[in-house]
Design a protein that fits this description.
431 residues, DNA Polymerase III, Chain A, domain 2, 3 domains, 9-stranded antiparallel β-sheet, 26 strands, globular
């Protein structure tokens, strides 16, 4: 018999859901392997092996359980869940508010030892920031590539860099230590963004001939090394910061405001979602929908603009992604050249759109932010905007009511006038 808490079951299920992209409740079979003072909970796919370890006192036993079973017995408490192998069935028992619960599952997996890769002997320690860097790289990839292996990330052993691209934007992150010299490719996986993983734990890294191994706290992830696909040579695409002809430094308040507002701008192209960024003394971003007479404009007065005046067109998703990644310093090389956000350890490069489709400045543009409001901080801007929105909605309602009242008054006045005219006619007849 193997005993594990309901809280641990919930934790395991959450991480496995991210590691294996589980949707609809069906996932890989789970192995519970107990030996002396150690319990391993493992699952595998073709490209990922995930393993959770927890301490305790156990008898040597190995039990396979369907992933779907975890949903029934998980909880946010430490009540025990008992797994017992009975011939061709596994019995799972626990207690909830309605009393004792028990389910049985047919054994679908057998075998000893378990078919999971062995741990390498040497592990190289990296800071906790590696986990976040891996997640940022993974979300920069393309889950459905057409040509190159842009559904993978590249781990450069010699330079300690993580490289990711989807063909439209490129993220390079430096400052890590990998115990190999080559450039290794591993497939996209979103497990490193799972909130159940410890945020402050160092990340241990190693590799074998077939796997790259990451250990974070009680978790170990094996990502399959891909050798039969080609990753694009992105190094020539990274410009030098000193060659930029224009720059802007995004203020923190403006960054927060931009994150909330840029996706609300109108759009005339659902595929590229273009916005025009104007650097001419101040930073302005505008967009216009089809049929809209004047563009909608965001002005970010707290941000600094340097260099040549420039106007360029870009995909708002790339701009938003850079801001969400924490970038604040942008370098521009012309309206037809890729732009770059840059800091000490990272570079984010993205392609610009056709400059002929830029939204020009318009004296009648619908301005979503004013200097006074921006000086009060992004939070005040949003609060003021919501207040104005509510006021306008109320004013429109009252205006409608007033118009209806005036129409009734005008109708009543016509009735009175008609009645008076009829009375005068009656008086004339009597006379």
């Amino acid at each position: 018999m193997i005993t594990i808490t309901r809280r641990a079951i919930r934790h395991v299920r959450s991480v496995f859901r991210s590691a294996f992209g589980v949707s609809g409740g069906f996932g890989p079979s789970i192995l519970f392997q107990a030996r002396n003072d150690d319990l391993r909970v493992c699952a595998a796919s073709d490209n990922m092996v995930a393993e959770y370890r927890c301490g305790g006192t156990f008898e040597d036993e190995q039990i396979w359980l369907p992933y779907e079973c975890l949903a029934a017995c998980e909880a946010r408490n430490d009540d025990p869940v008992q797994l017992e192998l009975n011939g061709a069935h596994v019995t799972v028992q626990w207690r909830d508010n309605s009393g004792p619960q028990m389910v049985q599952h047919e054994v679908t997996e057998t075998g000893s030892p378990a078919p999971f890769p062995k741990m390498p002997k040497e592990l190289r320690q990296n800071p906790p920031s590696l986990r976040q860097a891996l997640h940022h790289a993974m979300v920069t990839t393309d889950p459905e590539p057409i040509r190159y292996a842009v559904d993978h990330i590249q781990l450069r052993g010699e330079t300690g860099q993580i490289v990711a691209t989807d063909g439209r934007h490129l993220l390079v992150q430096s400052g890590f230590e990998f115990p190999w010299r080559a450039d290794l490719l591993v497939p996209r996986n979103l497990v490193f963004g799972c909130g159940e993983l410890p945020a402050d734990a160092p990340v241990l890294v190693s590799n074998t001939e077939e796997w790259v191994v990451f250990t974070v706290g009680d978790w170990t992830f094996h990502l399959k090394i891909t050798t039969d696909k080609r990753f694009p040579d992105v190094h020539p695409l990274i410009p030098r910061p000193q060659d930029a002809v224009a720059r802007f430094d995004l203020a923190s308040d403006d960054a927060r405001f931009l994150t909330k507002s840029v996706s609300r701008l109108p759009v005339d192209d659902e595929l590229n979602e273009p916005v025009t960024v104007d650097l001419n003394g101040c930073l302005a971003i505008r967009a216009k929908a089809n049929g809209q007479p004047h563009p909608t404009e965001i002005v970010l007065p707290n941000s600094q603009v340097d260099g040549d005046p420039m106007r360029f067109n870009c995909n708002r998703r790339c701009l938003l992604q850079a801001v969400k990644l924490g970038f604040r310093h942008a370098h521009l090389y012309g309206p037809n050249a890729p732009a770059m956000f840059h800091d000490e350890r990272r570079s984010y490069v993205w392609a610009l759109l056709d400059p002929d489709s830029q939204s020009r400045p318009d004296a009648n543009a619908e301005d979503t932010a004013t200097d006074d409001a921006a000086d009060n901080g992004a939070g005040d801007v949003i609060e003021q905007a919501e207040t104005v929105k509510a006021f306008l909605r109320e004013a429109a309602s009252k205006t409608g009511q007033l118009i209806a009242a005036l129409k009734r008054h005008r109708k009543q006045a016509k009735v009175v006038q008609s009645t008076l005219a009829a009375l005068k006619q009656l008086q004339n007849i009597e006379a």
